[in-house]
């Protein structure tokens, strides 16, 4: 009777099973499939940072949302006067 480690060693020495096991996860994604999307840098974010006015829009949004609580506080203060 073979032990489990001997059985695994005999399976690992067979190159055809090694190729079959590695083949699935090393195949490239097919972009024509509806279940695979483009991969790589800047492809997994919902905006394009390479546009002409990205910096202006980015810092404008940051300034607006940073100042929003202060603006609300000022509005609430002067609303009750």
What do you see in this structure?
It is elongated, with a radius of gyration of 29 Å. It has helices at residues 4-12, 15-25, 54-79. The chain starts with a helix and ends with a helix. The protein has 81 residues and is mainly α. The mean pLDDT is 77.
Question: Nutshell version of this structure?
Answer:
With 81 residues, the chain is mostly helical. The protein has helices at 4-12, 15-25, 54-79.
What layout of secondary structure does this protein have?
Blueprint: H1 4-12, H2 15-25, H3 54-79
CA(first)-CA(last) distance = 91 Å
Average pLDDT value? 77
Instruction: Tell the overall outline.
Output: elongated
Class computed from helices, strands and strand pairing: mainly alpha
Q: Taking Cα atoms only, what radius of gyration do you get, to the nearest Å?
A: 29 Å
Helix content: 55-70%
List keywords for this structure.
single chain, 81 residues, mainly alpha, 3 helices, elongated
């Amino acid at each position: 009777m073979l032990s489990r480690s001997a059985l695994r060693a005999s399976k690992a020495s067979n190159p055809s099973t090694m190729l079959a096991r590695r083949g699935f996860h090393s195949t490239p994604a097919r972009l024509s499939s509806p279940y695979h999307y483009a991969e790589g840098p800047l492809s997994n974010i919902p905006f394009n940072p390479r546009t002409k006015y990205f910096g202006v829009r980015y810092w404008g949004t940051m300034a607006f949302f940073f100042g929003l609580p202060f603006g609300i506080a000022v509005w609430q203060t002067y609303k009750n006067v």
